[in-house]
Description:
Layout: H1 2-10, H2 12-27, H3 40-58, H4 61-70, H5 76-94, H6 96-111, H7 116-137, H8 146-154, H9 159-184, H10 201-206, H11 211-228, H12 235-247, H13 258-275, H14 278-288, H15 292-303, H16 305-312, H17 319-328, H18 339-348, H19 355-383
Domain Citrate transporter-like: 6-312
Protein name: Citrate transporter
Membrane topology: Multi-pass membrane protein
Amino acid sequence: MKKLMLFIKREIVLSIAIVLAVVSAIWVHPDAQYPGYIDYRTLAVLFCLMTVVAGFRKLGFFDLLAEKLLARTKTVTGVAFVLVFLCFFLSMVITNDVALITFVPFTITIMHKMEEKLRRKWMLRVIVIQTLAANLGSMFTPIGNPQNLYLFGMSDDTAVAFLRLMFPYTLVSGILLAGWIILCVAGSGKNYEKTEIKITEKTDRKRHFNMGKYAACATLLFISLLAVGRILPYEIPLGCVLIYTLLCERSLLKEVDYSLLGTFAALFIFIGNLGRMQGVHDLLQQMVNGREVLTAIVASQFMSNVPAAILLSGFTDQIKALIIGTDLGGLGTLIASMASLISFKYAAGEKEIKTGRYIVVFTIANIVFLLVLLGLYSAISQTA
């Protein structure tokens, strides 16, 4: 029982998804239609991308990139720009949660090389802005976050059409981030002569250049992206990734977020069962239709945007509206995007950061960005 409670506390979203699937099975008993609920393509491609990105992380690629860029700047503003826009741009490829797992600890390390006064003043602000950057940058591409991958798979649009849809929001987000950095960080007016980043013996071993592994990861990423774009069937990258990991890099399999995959599977079952409850299905469909964006934003605040995307996709065919709504819905509460909890976990472990103040600053920043982007959506809708 103690282990069960620890699991539920650690994997609260997965636990809720499992409970919903089990409860729905009381009304719709398991039968031959259950396997058809699962979107195997989304699960397979997501598994491939998580594994490949884990490979690049193990090679130290992202840390090396960050250090190379930081070597070119010596001011607080410059350091903040590098750390924030690394999250913004790389989240488009490696997802928002991986960007934060990679760069928030790196940011904390960099901040500890600053003098204490600067560290106490800017650590919280930079981590908050990084979290925003990861959630905002990831909305630009079909592979930037899990709900985009899922919803893109449901749509008939091309990757170019997806990029065109989200480009205005991404562009304005980038401008807002730059302005926020200038307002929050540049106000110090004080140069920070950056201490050279120390590379530990362990990091040296990670960064030992291995052309074969880099080539393998790049090839697997390319094949996975072809599957995202529907040029290759998903079985091909899945087979290639499994063969490579089992033969050469089994440790990468430990880095995959299986709880996320399990959450998807459980929610697929829940939504599939709801779809077979005609009265419930019709009621939810009436509630969602014509209000997809706002419904997705509101739902995301309480259940996070990934479950919201899966839930609402069962009751509307307006996939573009759901993409916009769930991406913007990642802003707001701390759980609106589960990736935000990653930053919070790291920040809460730092004595320079008070958790109460972090939540206040985080919420204010999120609300400001959300209101601006909602205004942009309204303007685009009126001109369309």
